[in-house]
Amino acid sequence: MDKALLKALKLFLWLSILFFAGYWLYALYDDYELIARYGFDIKFVLIWLLYFLPFFSCFAVIYWLAVTAVLLLYYKIIRRSDRRQ
Q: Using one digit for the tens of pLDDT, what is the confidence trace for 24-58?
């Protein structure tokens, strides 16, 4: 189970990097008109950060709930039934 958790953690780190890059690229793409009109300001970054934190928190919670469910299903139900046979 330790190896499975380490694999899940490694996958989470890679998906987090993709989520991080995708979010910030989309934020720049989405607000390009605003940046072109008013210039780039630190206020925009703070607003984007205020949206990023809940989105990333939801991403992390959903990922770890899914991983926990799959690992518990595998190790407590599937693998236990394999040992009995």
A: 899 888 888 888 888 888 888 898 899 999 999 99
Measured CA to CA, the distance from residue 5 to residue 8 in angstroms comes to: 5
Instruction: Give which of 12, 6, 7, 4 is closest to 71, Cα–Cα.
Output: 4
Please classify residue 77 by burial: count the beta carbons closer than 10 Å to its beta carbon, then call 0-12 exposed, 13-18 middle and 19+ buried. exposed
Alpha carbons within 13 A on the beta-carbon side of 65 = 6
Please tell me the pTM assigned to this model: 0.75
**CA gap 22, 83 in Å, rounded:** 43
CA-to-CA dists, residue 76 to 7, 67, 69, 83, angstroms: 18, 14, 10, 11
Residues 6+ apart with CB under 8 A from 43: none
Q: Which two tokens stand for residue 34?
A: 């605003």
